[in-house]
Design brief:
This protein is of the alpha/beta class and 253 residues long. The protein has a single domain, classed as Alkaline Phosphatase, subunit A. It is built from 12 helices and 8 strands. Strands 1-3-8-7-2-6-4-5 form an 8-stranded mixed sheet, with helices on both faces. α9 links the parallel β4 and β5. α1 packs across α2 and α10 runs parallel beside α12. The protein starts with 5 loop residues before the first strand and ends in a 6-residue tail after the last strand. The structure holds zinc ion. The site of zinc ion has 6 residues, from loops.
Length: 253
């Protein structure tokens, strides 16, 4: 733990505390390094942006292509809990290790007894929203009122743009918590693309994030995090993901 500021399972407890909803049964804990930072950025709510495959060292390499995120954001090194997207996102949203939430596939989301911070918020009458891949969104639809899905696509740049578009639409409802998931970096990594292509994907996501910031309240806390380190070629120290926190208004100047 020492080389990390926190774990992916500590994100949901920090968000729950910030928006005032209980999150019983989480494996993660409220860590001051994380919650103090978030509290300084947020007065009105949280937008949690999961960037697929944004490992800690991957982010260090892609940073020049992500000026909106990197200039104002505070970077933490966050410990990953799995190499797979669906269980990782379930861990981010529930604050539980995969062995606790047991969500390995999208279908498991419907049967898992562990509730995410989104569901807890909904139960408390705290408005929350989610924009993810269509199957995941369909699974969430029964639980979260404001849920939009984007069908998987061969054109992952267009897919991410559609995610951004739905996020901006749902922000009009002023949710206290919004969660969305961008996938272009991960897809390009799986396709074995060049570093320049990865940088292009990162730049596209960075512009989406800047646009989302312009459409949300300035005093929203933006949390950008990876779900797991990038697949394939990895350096020795690449077992963590990037976690970047900033105030929405700070990227709009
Ligand atoms: Zn992933």
């Amino acid at each position: 733990m020492s080389e990390y500021n926190c774990s992916l399972i500590d994100i949901a407890p920090a968000i729950a505390e910030l928006i005032g909803v209980p999150l019983p049964g989480a494996d993660g804990v409220v860590r001051p390094e994380l919650s103090d930072l978030m509290r300084r950025c947020s007065r009105v709510g949280v937008v949690l942006i999961i960037v697929d495959s944004l490992g800690y060292s991957t982010y260090q390499r892609l940073k020049p292509s992500m000026p909106s995120v990197s200039v104002k954001g505070t970077l933490l090194r966050c410990e990953a809990v799995t190499d797979h997207t669906t269980p990782a996102i379930a861990s981010i949203l529930s604050g539980c290790y995969p062995r606790t939430h047991r969500v390995l596939t999208t279908a498991d989301m419907l049967t898992s007894s562990i509730k995410s911070v989104l569901e807890r918020a909904e139960e408390c009458g705290v408005k929350s929203a989610v924009v993810i891949e269509a199957d995941g969104a369909a699974a969430m639809k029964t639980k979260i009122e404001l849920s939009e899905g984007v069908p998987d696509s061969r054109d992952i740049i267009a897919y991410d743009a559609a995610i951004k578009g739905h996020a901006i639409d749902l922000l009009e409802h002023k949710p206290a918590l919004m969660v969305l998931h961008f996938r272009a970096i991960d897809r390009y990594a799986h396709e074995g693309r060049s570093f320049d292509d990865l940088a292009f994907a990162a730049g596209s996501i960075d512009r989406h994030i800047a646009e989302i910031c312009r459409h949300t309240l300035a005093d929203s806390c933006i949390i950008v995090c990876g779900d797991h380190p990038i697949h394939g070629k990895r350096t020795e120290d690449d077992h963590g993901v990037a976690l970047i926190i900033f105030r929405a208004g700070d990227v709009c100047d």
